[in-house]
Input
Amino acid sequence: MKKNPFDRVEIADGDITRERVAAIVNAAKRTLLGGGGVDGAIHRAAGPELRRFCETLDGCETGDAKITPGFLLPAPFVIHTVGPVYRDGRHGEPEALVSCYRRSLELAAEHGCASIAFPAISTGAYGYPFDEASRIAIRTTIRFLQAHPLPKTVRFVLFGERDAAAFRKVLGNIRSEDAPQSEP
Ligand code: AR6
Output
């Protein structure tokens, strides 16, 4: 295992449905029955068997996650998590978003996934301010990686170079804030 959790995080610009990782994460809705955005793209690429499988899961609470096969996707697993709908940040949205990342990482580790790819959960239709959401994504991931050997690699796959650059900046900032504590 690489010692520094920051070295286990990658940021890329692209379409998450094409990722060759053990698990991709879906920004789903509570029914888990598909929708628009990244959810629609994942269901289209995985094929109709994904929807049939999701029908058996009885939905998912906000902040929780459930795992399914990837069917026609290159990734063997899809982890469906339900992000919070953003109101004003004072209705439990940060806690719910932290929980989405943590629960997804826990499920990946339980299923032996060496690699996982996340989109920026809640930052599209659910309206979470992008910078705040990216800080939560990175902080929660780093904390998890500090305590767990799996997943070995966490990729954030953002839709567009601007979003990827914003994530890289946040990762750099958090890395420099954390630097004194991680020295021997
Ligand atoms: N690959 C990577 N990122 C993507 C892709 C893709 N193929 N497509 C979109 N994004 P959203 P939410 C980015 O709206 O805010 C759905 O209808 C997008 O640019 O997909 O959590 C569900 O069914 C944005 O940064 O998810 C729910 O009802 C991010 O993915 C609801 O939307 C998330 O945008 C969930 O809303």
